[in-house]
TrEMBL record:
SUPFAM superfamilies (alphabetical): Galactose-binding domain-like (SSF49785)
Domain Allantoicase: 10-146
Protein name per its UniProtKB record: Probable inactive allantoicase
Superkingdom in the source lineage: Eukaryota
InterPro entries: Allantoicase, Allantoicase_dom, Galactose-bd-like_sf
Species of the source: Rousettus aegyptiacus
Biased composition (Basic and acidic residues): 15-24
Lineage: Eukaryota, Metazoa, Chordata, Craniata, Vertebrata
Region of interest: Disordered: 1-27
């Protein structure tokens, strides 16, 4: 799902199993998004702390098995907080997830691009959580933006890297 280039086939992405406990009839909300409580999610650590300015959610090659909708949340975690979250399977009380992309309807076989005009948050993040509903597949998830000069350390740890952003610099985070 975070591979290089465009997906070559559905096997080049991430596909979840069809939910066996789906109700026989599923209704839509006023925005056409399925009212189904089921979802699947994945958490990604960014290469660098940064500000996300564009999100790409690619459903290419997923025609009848694409998710109805998705959302992307972000948070900033220290190394110790990340270790704690992993131990608790990313389910800690008071976690810091903030919406980067609200629940958004998806279409089959399409590269969906959401730029900074549609994003709700322009904050530094270190981790992103993609949630798809109710199930389906994605070819790629791309988060683009700017690295931050923030430095997150473990106690008694020396800084490993610091970044400074120059005008016009862009990075895939």
């Amino acid at each position: 799902m975070i591979g290089v280039g465009q997906p070559r086939s559905a096997a080049d992405g991430w596909e979840t199993a069809r939910k066996l406990d789906r109700p026989p009839t599923i209704e839509n909300d006023e925005n056409g998004i399925l009212l189904d409580s089921g979802c699947e999610w994945a958490v990604f650590r960014l290469a660098h702390p940064g500000v996300i300015t564009q999100i790409e959610v690619n459903t290419e090659h997923f025609k009848g098995n694409y998710p109805d909708s998705c959302k992307v949340d972000g948070c900033i975690l220290t190394t110790q907080e990340e270790e704690d979250m992993i131990k608790q399977k990313w389910d800690l009380l008071g976690h810091k997830w903030k919406p980067l992309l609200p629940v958004t309807k998806l279409s089959p076989n399409k590269n969906h691009v959401f730029d900074s005009l549609t994003l709700e948050l322009q904050d530094v993040v270190t981790h992103a959580r993609l949630t798809i509903s109710p199930d389906g597949g994605l070819g790629r998830l791309r988060l683009k933006g700017f690295p931050s000069s923030i430095c997150l350390l473990r106690p008694r740890e020396k800084p490993m890297m610091r970044f400074s952003v120059k005008a016009g610099f862009r990075a895939n985070l």
